[in-house]
Amino acid sequence: MENPKVKCSVDNCSYWEEGNNCVAETIMIEINAHAHAELPEGTRDEQYDSHHTDHAAGVKDTCCHTFKERVH
């Protein structure tokens, strides 16, 4: 199965490409309640915590933890 296209408007992320496309190999989505949790920054070979599940009432309850600031 081909990976879905992920759109992102955060242009200072190293995984951002022209056209607001995310090229990270793994996308980690969390609920906002975990926004301040100690999570690793996204890297292509990083293992993410997938041993828990949460419930989000809607899209506004989630945040994306694959952001990695692009160094210019």
UniProtKB/TrEMBL annotation:
Record domain DUF1540: where: 6-67
InterPro entries to which the protein is assigned, alphabetical: DUF1540
Name of the featured protein: DUF1540 domain-containing protein
Superkingdom field: Bacteria
